[in-house]
Write a structure and sequence with these properties.
The chain is mainly β. About 10% of the residues lie in helices and about 50% in strands. It has 2 helices and 15 strands. It is globular and about 60 Å long.
């Protein structure tokens, strides 16, 4: 019963989202993976590793991992990249992204505007065993192995300062096709264009030690309702925090992060109240680790804006 639920859940995901990239709960830890314009916007170069285990308790449940790095090249230009691996039985995908961003100081209270472009190469594999499929024939699925490598692009803008940020990004600009459309299907077998909106503001609430940061992330895909993450984090001494998130698909999230020197660790737990599969799992767990690296290019980049 548990395996049938898992396969049906994965099949629903494949049909509904057309092999889309996974979205990590801690988007605020690795936001450059969503918006290429964020590359080089930090006062350090972040090397970030994240792992997300969804539906803990199911064998073959979705497991996603990414590693990213970005930073300044000079006073205006920056680059970044990340490698993402996602395994959700019987589907597997691996993505390599390279981003470029150009930053413009607006000379008003250290506010800056950046524009970014990204290029992506994605490998996708789908391999069903006959015993894993629901009974009956379905033109959408077969027991043959399917492999595909393709490319696409993303773009974004980002307005940010010391205490706030707002951004907008689009991924899968070209909506590259995985395969010919499924017979009698209303949807093509291609990547859907994703639209992201994000924003946050950090408030000082006690001396200079405690801050409160409400933030949001909105994701919209074709044929699907938008899903929003509404998050509030409380910070102590800039690097240590605890947060709560409500996702509009019926998920709540608890997260925590703390720092040791230039290394930062974070953890989040997702609990979803919607869907039959949720009563059989132990929730979704996500772990992140970030190394904050200082370089001469970063110091010149930040110094140019007089931080």
């Amino acid at each position: 019963m548990r395996k049938i639920l898992l396969v049906l859940g994965v099949l629903f995901s494949i049909n509904s989202f057309a092999q889309q990239e996974p979205l990590f709960t801690q988007y605020y830890v690795n936001d450059m993976a969503i918006n290429p314009a964020i590359s080089g916007s930090k006062t350090y170069n972040p090397l970030t590793i994240q792992t997300r285990q969804q539906w803990l308790g199911f064998e073959g449940a979705p497991l996603s991992t990414n590693i990213s790095y970005h930073g300044a090249l000079n006073d205006r230009s920056a680059m970044g990249g990340y490698l993402m691996f996602d395994k959700a039985f019987p589907s597997l995908q691996a993505n390599l992204h390279l981003n470029y961003a150009y930053h413009i100081p607006l000379n008003y209270d250290n506010v800056n505007l950046s524009f970014g472009l990204g290029a992506k190469i994605m490998y996708h594999n789908l391999d069903f065993n006959k015993g894993d499929l629901p009974p009956g024939d379905d033109n959408a699925f077969s027991t043959s192995t399917y492999d595909k490598t393709l490319g696409d692009a993303s773009s974004g803008t980002y307005l940010y300062g010391r205490d706030f940020y707002f951004g907008f990004a689009i991924s899968n600009l070209f909506q590259s096709s995985f395969n010919t459309p499924i017979e009698r299907s209303v949807n093509g077998n291609d990547e859907f264009r994703n639209y992201y909106g994000m924003g946050a503001y950090r408030f000082l609430i006690m001396n200079n030690d405690w801050h409160l940061e409400p933030s949001f992330l909105i994701r919209k895909m074709r044929y699907n309702k938008s899903v929003s993450d509404l998050t509030t984090r409380i910070f102590y001494l800039e690097k240590n925090w605890a947060g709560l998130t409500y996702r509009t698909n019926g998920t709540t999230v608890f997260s925590i992060g703390f720092a040791s020197n230039n290394m930062h660790l974070s953890y989040s737990y997702d609990h979803t109240f919607a869907g039959a599969i949720m009563s059989h799992t132990y929730g979704t767990h996500e772990i992140g680790i970030t190394f904050r690296i200082q370089t001469l290019a970063t110091q010149r980049h930040i110094g140019f804006w007089e931080y």
